[in-house]
Amino acid sequence: MGVPPMLRKLVAIGCQALECLPNDISRLEHLKIFRSTSLPTSGKLPTTLEMLTIFEGVHFDSVSGTILQEISKSLDFLSIIGFPNTRILLGSLRNFESLVNLEISYCDRLESFPERGLSAPNLSYLNIWDCPILKSMPDQIQSLTSLTRLYINNCPNLEFSHPKTKGDFPPNLTDLSIASCQKLMPLTEWSLHLLTSLRNVNIRNVHPELVSFPDFPDNDEYYCGLPATLTSLSIEGLQNLESLSSTGLQNLTSLKELHIRKCPKLSSLPKDGLLATLSRLQIDDCPLLKQRLTCGSQDGIDPRQSPLFSISDLNHLVENTRKVLLVKAGAAFHFSAYTPFVAFDMLEL
């Protein structure tokens, strides 16, 4: 029994001896191979294939590489999950002319990318997470000028290899998220100031020794601030963070959203106040800062600058107490007609 001639999507699950795919799949666009002990070793994959997902495939040899190489020019989306030979697989797909999205996750044996990096001129989205022994980013990643979104999560041995004057990021990034990568060099050496298209930055569980954010020493000859193009900044899980730096934030003249989460030692905000452009400030699980705010010491927060101010960890307070705190905050903030609304616990008051 053959397959429907108009078949667009095929999912193979638990095929322990997958040697070939059906012949009549000339219109196939999306192929998923889940928990199979091998990849196809004979036949051809259709050149119409645009999306390929490989989940916990085990056996991979030169024959498999040859078959996959035939479709590398047509692939738009490639997802590799829990694959033991990721480096070899990527090396066999040498020309990603059409690749736009690349996801690599749970690849326990991936230590580095193939030499010469990734030949993917149109790659715009790269997501790498849970690769515990990965030590470096792809070579020549700066040449990926179409890459706008980069997400890296839980790669504890990852290190940036380039000096601070060159940077280790594609030049046209708009979104950058880095989480749980404990071996990264200090933020001062990321050269984020070179990324003049950067809009959104999320930093989580990095630099456990960081006390002030951003930590840019005034005497650093390579002073590298955050780019003025930022509109959203989120920091989370900085366990020793005590304060936000006025110097590091002062040039963020486009910043509209600031999110601060799970910074247990954070006790103060910039002495010079927050930026006038800020329209949303959200603080979660910062007990010392919450204590200062709820006791009437507002440390530079002016609701005329921050129309939405929320502290989500006030859930334990009873309704009457919340109203009293609002009165105290109102007296300290000097609410005026310029304050659209103030919110505690994400409730409009």
UniProtKB/TrEMBL annotation:
GO terms for biological process: defense response. Residues 171-286 form the Disease resistance protein At4g27190-like leucine-rich repeats domain. SUPFAM superfamilies: L domain-like. It comes from the Eukaryota. Keywords: Plant defense. This is Disease resistance protein At4g27190-like leucine-rich repeats domain-containing protein. It comes from Nyssa sinensis.
